[in-house]
Design brief:
Elements (H helix, E strand, L loop, with lengths): L1 H25 L14 E6 L6 E6 L5 E3 L2 E3 L1 E6 L3 E6 L4 E6 L4 E6 L4 E11 L3
Amino acid sequence: MVKLKNIGLIAASFVTGILTSKKLHENDIPEPQLNPLFFVGTWNYRANDSNRIHTVEIRPNFDLLIDGHAIKSKVENWDKYTITFLDRYGYHIRIRANDQRPVSIYDETDNETYPILLGNYKVTK
């Protein structure tokens, strides 16, 4: 009877160890690599005040152009869904994305967020 009890305890400890070990290793799996080149491309948005369509381009070297004019800026930060540029005047231009593509542009100078026009973008990687 004592032997059977010891075997049961050993088996339970073994199973608990396996389950705990598997759970710990699930947390060790790295997240997929984030690639800032996801944001490289050309997109259009419509200005709310003038109803004019503007073009934003991010080049592979992260040069930022608006309506074909280079904007002196640098990438301040980025993650899977957002890239933020800081222009030479200290204003932010933020592009947000979903899993497929960039979806909106925030311009701090106007304090406006503009949806990217669907079908009016091209990836220029």
